Amino acid sequence: MINISALKDRTTFMQEFKGGEIIIQDGDKDTDKMYIVLDGSVGVYKDYMKDEQIDIAVLYRGDFFGEMSLFLNAPRTATVVALEDTELLVINRATAHEFFRKEPDATYTLIQALCQRVTNSNLAYKVAQDIKIASQLDALTKLYNRGAFFEKFIQSYNMTMLNQQSGCVMMTDLDYFKKVNDTYGHPAGDIVLVTVADLLKSQFQKKDCCGRYGGEEFIVWIPGDSIDTVAPVAESVRELIELFPIDTETKQGEINITISIGVAAIDYSRPCTASELISKADAALYAAKQSGRNRVCVFDWSSCE
Predict the structure, then answer these.
(1) Of these residues, 103, 216, 242, 249, which one is catalytic?
(2) 3-class SS of residue 209
């Protein structure tokens, strides 16, 4: 902790600012000074006095600011304003080395402040990442939502095509799901959707991409695997869900549900876009529904000839 009273007695590099006076302006290229608050307080802002103003921090007696621009010789990244009549110690580039050599307490406090700012930066990055991930997930099932799925699918599909690799799209739809909602209620329907989503995801690898396509429909992109590999997996998924008892948390207790599945594989003799491959899988899903439900159908490319 800096002894501010003793520091004031030992230095003449002090400057006073009236309340409301701007000390540092965001974007300024004058980076030769950093400051220590001796008395009063200052506010730190982004987009100061604009509609989208962000209040970053309030600094008090003993706090530093401006050091990053001084050490990195980079433009100011925020605006700093005196919140009241404030007295600051000014440390310029020419005298910084000598000041910190003579003031070990100030050096230690500055190191603490820098470490805290790195920690805050890391926490802010983690929060931003968490928000980004949350925005990509379906709120109920925690699978990718439709928009995020398409973004990841198209990127992976284009890479798969570029490398001439195998790949399959699997579309699933819960059979007679409306009856579940009508009979057991929508909360029970939500439990069914979450359970099916969890079971579905458990059968695929990290490289695969599972998403909620809409309503009771789910979609999976399986890059790098051929139809010979994916078709048996699809059948295993269908059987797993058919035999899995789902607790509806109602007086009716457990129920079983079935799904229909359509699968389409990349066929390099018949090039198609990412959206067209999904359409083929959807056509196979429709065929599974028309054939009696609770089954897997694979899209037949020869039907396009």
Answers:
(1) 216
(2) strand
